[in-house]
Amino acid sequence: MDVSQYLEIFIDETKEHLQSLNEQLLIIEKEPENTDTINEIFRAAHSLKGMAGTMGYKRMQKLTHQMENVFSEIRNGKMKIDAGMVDVLFQCLDALEEYLDNIQSSADEGTNDNEPILQQLEAILNGETPAAGGSDSGSEEKAESGESEHVSIDFTFTDFERHAIEEAFEKKMNVFAITVEVEESCLLKAARAFLVFKSLENVGEIIKSEPSAQDIEDEKFEQVFKICLVTESDLDKVIAIIKNVSEIKDAVGEKIESIEEPKPEKAPEELAAESKDEKPAAAKPEKKEAGKADDKGGAKQKAGGKPVVNRSVRVDIEKLDVLMNLVSELIIAKNGLISTSSQNESKSSQSFNEQIEYLERVTTNLHESVMKVRMMPIETVTNKFPRMIRDLTKKLDKKMELFMTGEDTELDRTVIDEIGDPLMHLLRNSADHGLESAEVRAQRGKPEVGTIKLDAYQDGNNVVIEVSDDGNGIDVEGVKNKAISKGTITEEQAESMTDKEIIDLLFKPSFSTAKKVTDISGRGVGLDVVKTKIEALGGDIEVKTQLGEGSTFIIRLPLTLAIIQALMVELGDEKYAISLGSIQTIEDIPVEDVKYVQTKEVIHLRGSVIPLIRLDSVLDIEPKEQPDSLTVVIVKKGDKLAGLVVDRLLGQQEIVIKSLGKYISNSSKIISGATILGNGDVALIIDVNTLI
Amino acid sequence: MDTAINQTTVNAAGEQEGTPITNQYIVVLLGSEFYGIDISNVDNIVRMQNITRVPKSQDYFNGVINLRGEIVSVMSLRKKFKLEDDEFTDKTRIIILKPDHQEPIGVIVDVVEEVVTLEEESIEKMSSDSRNERAKYLLGVGKDGERLISLLNIAAVISDDER
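Above: the input entities. Below: the structure tokens describing the complete assembly.
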């Protein structure tokens, strides 16, 4: 069978499953009794096995099969999870990732059989549990008695269902016909219905539903479905159980007292199994096992694992780039129209202006839509970090915990693709160099478990990612001495350098202060690579540190790479653009209000002292005569402010950012790019972050 | 024309491997001297236009222009060759070079004269020990009748020698 067309889907889905396995294993390591997680893991492992088998990846299949066996034993309660086992399972995941990498690059899984891991799995299976199998028959019987089709009130029962109801009557059990209504806003109706089913199965047996269990599972129902339940509980209790499931709007029921004559039975096990298995695509063996598990543990959450089906199309990022370029062109053309119309004020009629405004609205919306298409949550990068920190904990023998916030912060796809490595490096850095060993921490009165934080949030036109730890902080003296001994700076230079300048030395190539080199970090190829990469993305990085208390690396990235709102200003006869996102306010400051602090110009504004930056001298522009009052654009970077002195304000404009190209040197980095104005001229964009 | 021979020439020049082999040159005037630019490097020739200065860039770069929606850096050959400053006239042109499908770059010349075909034997290679400051930007000198044309080594011209 030619499966190549499915390869891409296979790779994507395998990645998802591996990621979910990683996450679930981390949970299970902490809460070994969490049955939901165990079921989730089992399901993911099983799907992996099925997929690998279908694609003909035998080694991968073998490994996942063995893993699945282990999970199966755990799920059946025949084995307890211990740290050693989790380690082996993590190794399995790594091996699977390796297979996946091979497949991704060559469509072949490679030749590594991973025998040692297989043997370890085997050992776990043999050493701690008897062979699986015995449980199967029992569970099937259970399932068998459980399910049937039938009807009541407005159900139509089949013979078998009638029989089941008769039986219930004989046993003096209650039979209820219940109508359940799901909230209209509910996105996962099938999942909610499934939860209802599951919780009812704890108190009785569902002998009939309408639509059928399969249809409910496939979400083939509106807001309402009906259930016929045989139970010992009373109606109020049952209704309460149903309403306990979230997003259930209402449930009403009535007791069925009698039913027409019974008819012969028919074997329902197929149905039973099917209704409980939410993945129709999964291979047959799972059905039995899944059913088994559910019966045994009275599983509740299974439906929660069903992936949310988004209606989406995979699009090559290059096609999006083309689209983005076209939008850029459109915006330039629109700017051209605007500038033409403003030049011929007399000729331009009202309706022409209206049409231009309309066009402007459309292009702005179009731009936003295209941008949104390209945005991805940073989560896609950060979700592998908890696992990494766990591994580091073991490797470094330091206790630490990672806290992440703002994983839903969105960034352009191109940035997301690049930011993973630098972030990983910073985290490793914090874990290895930042956090002290347990003894030192104890001496310093810090909690034994070190804290590493990764916070992402949006700040104006930037996205800020902070990586912080509560470790040792950066030893400025240590860095200074190292730099001197390495010859990076002379002693005289060191004397005159501020702490900040010294810390910045860490970002120079081949500068690692780690006293011993580990395989985690400390090879001196670190922070400078991080810095280069972040700068290539148009961002910057800075460090805040307090010796003995920890350090924070702050990465600032542009939210969009292509189009921004900007304030156009004039300096001499040149025009420059300043990103609106970094502008706080614009002020008119009388010349006499300019004060001097250590020979630097500052202004007093609403209680804060703000340094003035004369853009004309920074940009080598002939200064104009000093006017009576200065036009000052107050810009911010994080919590720092500065006032940029400009000659004239030209107004706000949507600009398309273009690169200056590789030839012209821009060593000072003041200019972050260029843009084309409505009249075809080029204006340069000032990167405020480099000025503050 | 003999391709094999041409090949050796270019390889001997050592700088231009991979560029298509032609022996057609655009002849431009800088001051009183004629220079030749291998036509395979030339993307386009445009009239002088508004150039936006880029602060803190190398001094031989005049700035950037908008070439049909693209930002293209423009350098002054006169400044690069340390001749007296440009005087922009209506004959001044910007030649847009696109060597080896790299990013385009513009060079300002006083006048664009014509396109000439130079046979291999009419080209005299530059000896590497030449004292002339400008020699490192040249591949050789071509003879077109009575006229001497200095053939530009584009790769050297656009490389950043301030770095």
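Note for the figure: Residues 3-158 of chain B form a domain with the OB fold (Dihydrolipoamide Acetyltransferase, E2P) fold (CATH 2.40.50.180).
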